Amino acid sequence: MDIVIAIAAITGLAAAFGLLLGYSAIRFKVEGDPVVDQIDAILPQTQCGQCGYPGCRPYAEAIAAGEADINQCPPGGEAGVQALADLLDRDAKPLNPENGAESAKMVAVIDEQVCIGCTLCIRACPVDAILGATKQMHTVIADECTGCKLCVSPCPVDCISMVAFDETLETWRWPFPDNKGTVPILVETAPHKTDLVA
Questions:
Q1: Which residues span the domain enclosing 151?
Q2: What is the pLDDT along the chain (198 residues), one digit of tens a residue?
Q3: Residues 47 and 72 occupy one common structural domain
Q4: How much of the chain is helix, strand and coil, in % rounded to 5?
């Protein structure tokens, strides 16, 4: 009988706290700026800081507030500047050379024979793409690496190099369609016949 009372009491407390949290989530909901979300979706999410901001989200907030220009993101390149200009109905500008130049996608590679396991690169990586432990060798998770180069300068033994990212069948992705034209859609017109519709 005591167990039933204890279970009922815990269930009642859980239900009460659940209702309280549900009400609080609705009552105190903070609305985000949809323009900031759209800008942030265009940015490449490298978190490299080349734009002068600590990450892509703060840079998006600065663009939306009019505190930063749209041409400060070298990883996004000219295509990113053009997409931001189209979104914000501004004129496109060339990349600001003070922030860096556009380059091919790079991935960090650690020479594991030279690595001393100091973990300075792990602390510098904004996306946790480096795997390792103190006094152990480190390696880079290539799929997670954004190529921001923030791990290169802290390395005391210069065992990190940036190499061009090879495009393979496994890593290639379809480009996003532009909104200027129509995208063909495959429509099934008969059990074994398909047509392209514009």
A1: 105-169
A2: 789 999 999 999 999 999 999 999 888 887 777 899 999 999 988 888 889 999 999 999 999 999 999 999 998 889 899 999 999 999 989 999 998 888 878 899 999 899 999 999 999 999 899 998 998 888 999 888 888 889 999 999 999 999 987 767 776 667 666 555 554 554 454 555 444 444
A3: yes
A4: 35, 15, 55
CATH code of the domain covering residue 83: 1.10.15.40
pTM higher than the cut 0.90: no
Tell me which residue of 175, 169, 151 sits closest to 161, measured CA to CA: 151
Q: How far is residue 104's CA from residue 120's CA, in Å, rounded to a whole number? A: 25
Q: What is the CATH number of the domain that holds 143?
A: 3.30.70.20
On whether the CB atoms of residues 105 and 148 are closer than 8 A, the answer is no
Whether 188 is in a domain gets the answer no
> What gap in Å lies between CA 155 and CA 124, rounded to an integer?
10
Residue 11: inside a domain, yes or no? no
